[in-house]
Amino acid sequence: xxxxxxxxxxxxxxxxxxxxxxxxxxxxxxxxxxxxxxxxxxxxxxxxxxxxxxxxxxxxxxxxxxxxxxxxxxxxxxxxxxxxxxxxxxxxxxxxxxxxxxxxxxxxxxxxxxxxxxxxxxxxxxxxxxxxxxxxxxxxxxxxxxxxxxxxxxxxxxxxxxxxxxxxxxxxxxxxxxxxxxxxxxxxxxxxxxxxxxxxxxxxxxxxxxxxxxxxxxxxxxxxxxxxxxxxxxxxxxxxxxxxxxxxxxxxxxxxxxxxxxxxxxxxxxxxxxxxxxxxxxxxxxxxxxxxxxxxxxxxxxxxxxxxxxxxxxxxxxxxxxxxxxxxxxxxxxxxxxxxxxxxxxxxxxxxxxxxxxxxxxxxxxxxxxxxxxxxxxxxxxxxxxxxxxxxxxxxxxxxxxxxxxxxxxxxxxxxxxxxxxxxxxxxxxxxxxxxxxxxxxxxxxxxxxxxxxxxxxxxxxxxxxxxxxxxxxxxxxxxxxxxxxxxxxxxxxxxxxxxxxxxxxxxxxxxxxxxxxxxxxxxxxxxxxxxxxxxxxx
Amino acid sequence: xxxxxxxxxxxxxxxxxxxxxxxxxxxxxxxxxxxxxxxxxxxxxxxxxxxxxxxxxxxxxxxxxxxxxxxxxxxxxxxxxxxxxxxxxxxxxxxxxxxxxxxxxxxxxxxxxxxxxxxxxxxxxxxxxxxxxxxxxxxxxxxxxxxxxxxxxxxxxxxxxxxxxxxxxxxxxxxxxxxxxxxxxxxxxxxxxxxxxxxxxxxxxxxxxxxxxxxxxxxxxxxxxxxxxxxxxxxxxxxxxxxxxxxxxxxxxxxxxxxxxxxxxxxxxxxxxxxxxxxxxxxxxxxxxxxxxxxxxxxxxxxxxxxxxxxxxxxxxxxxxxxxxxxxxxxxxxxxxxxxxxxxxxxxxxxxxxxxxxxxxxxxxxxxxxxxxxxxxxxxxxxxxxxxxxxxxxx
Lengths: 539, 395
Ligand code: HEM
What we know:
The complex is a heterodimer of chains A (539) and B (395).
Chain A: E1 4-5, E2 11-12, H1 46-49, H2 54-63, H3 65-81, H4 97-114, H5 124-154, H6 161-165, E3 169-174, H7 183-191, E4 195-199, E5 202-207, H8 214-231, E6 238-246, E7 250-252, E8 260-271, H9 280-286, E9 290-302, E10 314-323, E11 328-330, E12 333-354, E13 360-367, E14 374-378, E15 381-389, E16 392-394, E17 400-402, E18 411-418, E19 421-430, E20 433-435, E21 443-463, H10 466-485, E22 489-496, E23 499-506, H11 510-521, E24 530-531, H12 532-538
Antiparallel strand pairs in A: 1-2, 3-23, 3-24, 4-5, 5-22, 6-21, 7-8, 8-9, 9-10, 11-12, 12-13, 12-21, 14-15, 15-18, 16-17, 18-19, 19-20, 22-23
Chain B: H1 2-29, H2 41-68, H3 76-98, H4 101-118, H5 135-165, H6 173-201, E1 205-210, E2 216-221, E3 227-228, E4 233-234, E5 244-245, H7 252-276, H8 280-284, H9 293-326, H10 335-357, H11 361-386
Parallel strand pairs in B: 3-5
Antiparallel strand pairs in B: 1-2, 1-4
Helix pairs in contact in B: 1-2, 1-4, 2-3, 3-4, 3-5, 4-5, 4-6, 5-9, 5-11, 6-7, 9-10, 9-11, 10-11
Bound molecules: protoporphyrin IX containing FE.
């Protein structure tokens, strides 16, 4: 494309509004405006220059801040809608979501569900909104950062008079001798940490230019953050699984390719002591308050020489107490204490007993999670477990069945083999009930006690994207701080005939720069520049 | 120790209260000489009192920390009080940047109201549930409070801007909205007055009612029930019978409190209007005579610029770190998190509109008001209404 040669000799890219070097307006209409639009130094932005092809149009759409703000505002409103009722992931799993919303919140709830707001944050249109913000961030930043960088790098000390005159802060001081030295001013400028460039007795004082890059740095941070979010969908990058493990149990940790095992030694739930000296009032108001949830575990790694198929040989890696806020971490995995179940039945014991004489012939203890098929009591006495129903119920056909594999309500069909009944007697034993299908047995299984164990519910987490989020977040913070806590200020002082011209520009906080200029000019004989916007506002 | 702590808080409250008229005096003084270089004697006393008050409140915070054994940031009373303290701190900071006593006249009353509002909630020292036993939580919560407080200063400055710039000579959309803002502030006073009155009277009325799962429960009201619970039956005799009954999914007790506060707010507001014989905005306008619009505009913007990064750090970055440790994931679309995101997006929009679309002055001031409304919504409504549905938000 055509380049534009300015009268000062500098060659500008096509589309430049203000010459990068001297600042003279290169576009006809701009010469008539009272104040220059300094936002991007009048640099040549693609979005302001081309508007022909479809690509131009898309580019211009996404590079517009107006569009960006709309995207942000729409996302904001959409996000708020998602908090009216709880999201699906937070509703209790008592009934299907369709019914739940209507049941709890009436027709509004039903509508909420039907419009898909119950899963708003993973709905396609919400993701499209976030993606558009991402695209917008990339395009708007590219559209501006390069031209802005060029313009600030190429700027000359001596600016064209039409540039100075159209700055918001501008003033002229009549002087007798135009060669009066600026020493005092320069010293004051230096005190205020301006870096100073001089050319033919003219001055350009500038500070905080790096704060102009703040928005671009923070946008890059945001983009990296969003990329982190996208990577979550790559298999293997993000693992979210649950491990329920009973006290005394050793289990393979899911998603570790069978490499790691965990033993749960003990689960502890502690509550605050009611007679707590400091908290007694709060405790008597709110009842029991949990103090600690803790699983004492041992982590094992499968030994290298373990043979596949055989029971794994395990090497102990470490002992640890997993508590809320203190996950167990290893090799990129983390195990979190999230749930628990107290006092799950673990073993049940029975005495093989003669019904008439009450004589006992030995005791069996059945591990409710792994019952054996036969218990030999010696002397010709033994018990066979013919069926086992860990969570017993009669199903719709009236047959004994089990609701789940968790021993909430165990029931057994035993075959009791004794020397006088070598074929055995069948007895159905459940909690609080015994059924003898062939009537009048001579023997029974007399209940002899239960043992219980606690169960820990752990979340298994691996998140290889975390560091990307961390980098994104960190860059964002650096960028906002850079943009928010520093300002880019420039002051031009030039000599023209019997006059000293002064102009000032800042990207924000005009009150601050005015106050600063006032201090800098103190005693120099140069008048403070006027605020051209303020004057028009005051009128 | 706990006693000393409450006394210090009370002392701080009184000091702030006393400082306000001094800030008033400081701007009156300026009438004669137009451009005054340094703040006058009134202003110096006012800021001195504010700082002493702040130190007293810091004392409250530290002694309470020592008494409880954990930073007092773990329930609504503690968090809100801390927010009030941060607001004072942010005001002191901005005051020394711009030396504008009038800001104290608008910000300190807001801080006072927030602290008074906080003390309407249960104040006893409470133990930490396991999820809250984390340094990250405390870092997160305190940084959020600080960030939001700095953002709230921008609301104070914006309010000054609007009071000064809105044309009060005739009724317009702007005067109405400004009065809506004033009314909201007055109804917070209404809430405080009503709650305090009934708690001094020790009002209690118990209802048996049927909750949304068709289970019978009891509910204790501390204010006469204008709105009764679903199929509610008064247990005691001689107490106020509800005028209407609401369906089970509505929290009748909270709704009742809101209605009482609004009623008291309306009454107070009408009373104030009756005494002033003009809009509150109009009555405040003379106070703003000597302040320059572009200065308050800049204070408002500057506060957003200072507060936004702090809020991002506390409300998003530290929040995510804590959530990752305590809840296994750094983000979970919990209402509280979503509202932090909304706040953040809103102020991002604010900054873009200002920097790139040139929304200065009045537009920017209205935005600052909306931003504060969002923060308050997150503090009050999300805690008390929305999050009530969620498992851990109650704590
Ligand atoms: C959630 C998303 C975003 C956040 C948090 C964000 C944050 C910021 C911040 C803090 C600034 C500096 C503002 C100031 O210093 O006053 C900024 C500037 C800017 N942002 Fe964003 N931004 C976001 C999205 C976007 C989008 C979608 C666009 C696309 C149009 C965009 C375009 C810009 C532009 C053009 C600037 C000004 C740069 C300059 O004038 O030098 N931003 N952004």
